[in-house]
Amino acid sequence: MSPTKPCIPIPPPLMMSEEGSFAHQTLTQRWVTIIERAIASNNYPASITQNLENLRQELPYGIVRSLEDETQPDLEAWNTYMSPYQGKRWIDIPWYPAEVYLYRRILEATHYFQPGKWHRVDPFEPQKHSSLAKVMSAIETMSGKINTFVDAQGKWNRIDLIALFYFALWGNRIDLSLFPTDAGESQRMNIEAYREQANLLVDHTPQIADHIAHLKGVRIDLIVDNAGFELFCDLCVADFFVNSGIAQPVYLHLKPHPVLVSDAMIKDVDHTINVLCHHSHQDVQSLGKRLKNHIDNGNIICCEDSYWTAPLAFWDMPESWRSELNQSQLVMIKGDANYRRLLGDRQWDYTTPWEDIVCYFPAPFAALRTFKAEVAAGLKPAQIKRLNQDDPQWLTNGQWGVIQFFNPRQ
Ligand SMILES: O=P(O)(O)OC[C@H]1O[C@](O)(CO)[C@@H](O)[C@@H]1O
To answer: Dihedral (C-alpha) 17, 23, 28, 32: value to the nearest 10 degrees?
Structure first.
């Protein structure tokens, strides 16, 4: 029987109480800025602004309480998740559950689930839209290339497939929770650098390409991360899988409500495709229209589920999700936060063998992630030594990445 947990003892979670850690900095500085930006970029009435101010002031020594908004659909589930932490101070609870709980509290504060003017109004939408607008010239350049990756007969080559994986990885550098939209995306988007390997600390793309070479008309799943440029990259990957006949269909798993500032929801996919379809550049338009057709024809299926916003490690995946993903021939797991869930946001030694941790995953998968948190596995001691010397912020500055693969069926 296949394992449902890591195959080795699980270390403790990352804690926000550890001074000098990125988790501590996130609690004491980054979340404050995130709340302030949500206030500044929306035209909230005084009562909502006050709610958000109150939440900001709870950090870091206020007490964690249960959610109070009874109209929230998964209130009960959330109160169960948070029950081990109720009555504790924010600073004393593990980072990952605290992080997703914070975003849930932001939605409570902005009346996201309440009927009325602010119902389903994404507090981060202005930032998401402006981030997409700022990367349109990069999208123009990329669309021309992407449109040539699969020919009219569905033929493709391995080099383009691997380039697409690098492209999807480095697209994860752009993350509004870490780099606000006014910080200049273009600096981090040197298009030619998408083919670079220098900053890639683990590169399993050859194994992934070998795995994909045998696939035809199979189910592929993409656990999506950020809206904006990264979502554009991920849509290009989905487009490739459909055009080449490798996948039928591609499932895109999206967040059911706003979280981690830029995480993509179904409405963000719709917005992105709409922007592409109405863009003046021909290449962008044809890509947009093709994507729209793929969705209309059921070749790309967008879905959302509360599991993707729950404060649970991937090894705590409900049985229903394990059997769902078990039907997939490849699951692509995008981004840092999903990677943290894959590793349970635990204090693993960074040289821990990858397969000893992820042996529990129910399907072949590829994790594409730039480092924005102090969680890692499968690295070499010499690599770590060199990085600590050359770039002391390597674990969190989004400049380094991994593409890691595991196939539980081999
Ligand atoms: O969009 P991504 O890659 O999941 O990054 C979000 C992550 O980045 C951070 O903002 C930085 O740690 C985390 O809060 C979260 O893990």
So the answer is: -150
177 Cα to the center of ligand 1, angstroms: 7
Which class in CATH covers the domain with range 22-109? mainly alpha
pLDDT tens for each residue of 8-46: 999 999 999 999 999 999 999 999 999 999 999 999 999
Q: Which helix (H) or strand (E) holds 341?
A: helix 336-342
Ligand 1 geometric centre to CA of 280 (Å): 33
Q: Which atom of ligand 1 is nearest to the CA of 338?
A: 4
Kindly list the protein residues whose Cβ atom lies closer than 6 A to any atom of ligand 1. 26, 99, 172, 175, 177-178, 225-226, 260, 335-337, 340, 372-373
Q: Where are the alpha helices (DSSP H) in 157-303?
A: 158-170, 205-213, 229-243, 266-277, 282-296
Work out which ligand 1 atom sits closest to the CA atom of 369. Answer: 3
> What is the domain partition of the chain in residue ranges?
22-109, 125-406
Query: Ligand 1 centre and the CA of 181: distance in Å?
Result: 15
The token pair at 207 is: 């194994």
Sheet holding 200-203, edge to edge: 200-203, 401-406, 365-370, 330-334, 218-223, 247-254, 300-304
pLDDT at 185 (0 to 100): 47
> Could you tell which of 16, 260, 261, 340 is best to mutate to test the pocket of ligand 1, judged by most ligand atoms within 8 Å of the CB?
260
Cα atoms found within 13 Å of the Cα of residue 392, Cβ hemisphere only? 2
So what's the pLDDT on residue 348? Answer: 98
Closest residue (by CA) to atom 16 of ligand 1? 337
Q: Model-level pTM?
A: 0.95
125-406 CATH choice from 3.40.50.1970, 3.40.50.300, 3.20.20.70, 3.40.50.10880: 3.40.50.10880
- The answer to whether 240 and 299 are in contact (CB under 8 A) is no
For residue 364, count other CB atoms closer than 10 A to its CB. Answer: 21
Whole-number Å distance, alpha carbon 281 to ligand 1 midpoint, is 32
Give every residue of the chain whose pLDDT is below 50, as ranges.
183-192, 194
